[in-house]
Amino acid sequence: MLSYLPEFVDPLGFADKRRRVVGELPLALFDRIEEFLFERTGSIRVELEFGKDGRWSVVTGWVEADLVLQCQLCLDRLPWSVRLRVALGVVASLEEADRLPASCEPLLFDGGAPIRLSDLVQDELVLAVPPIPQHAVCGDNAPPGPQAENGKRENPFAVLAQLKNNDSKFS
Ligand SMILES: [Zn+2]
């Protein structure tokens, strides 16, 4: 689902208005990770809330993507799912950044021209891409995780049914 995202954000103004931006950005905007991508189509899901934490303007939320990187050893596809927690505190200087709560990373903003949203997201995203993407074992293209443990997993519908039963007890 593609929804509207502003091209630019003003972190201070948005924080005052407690704005929330939710939507998807096309992967083509992210030139700094492009060289690592095996597939350049797709999108980055973004959910950000601008608000206040004490005297700080903060940006919190998530950046999510199902990337397909290129393994630097065998040059084959390497699926790479990313779900990044974003917690930024808006600061005007590096000195101010030192006073931020430990839970926040600094977002340098001088109060002037708004920031391009894709730049803000890209700064986060580059941290989630390994410097040299590679398979744990090349040639073994089975995606890690779910498939291997299929046998052990509970039927999700059984869990849903159970939840419904619990609900009805209280209604
Ligand atoms: Zn490989």
Automatic annotation (TrEMBL):
Pfam families: YceD (PF02620). The keyword Cell membrane does not apply. Keywords: Ribosome biogenesis. It comes from the Bacteria. InterPro entries: YceD, YceD_bac. The keyword Kinase does not apply. Signal peptide: none annotated. PANTHER family: LARGE RIBOSOMAL RNA SUBUNIT ACCUMULATION PROTEIN YCED. Belongs to the DUF177 domain family. Plays a role in synthesis, processing and/or stability of 23S rRNA. This is Large ribosomal RNA subunit accumulation protein YceD. It comes from Methylococcus capsulatus.
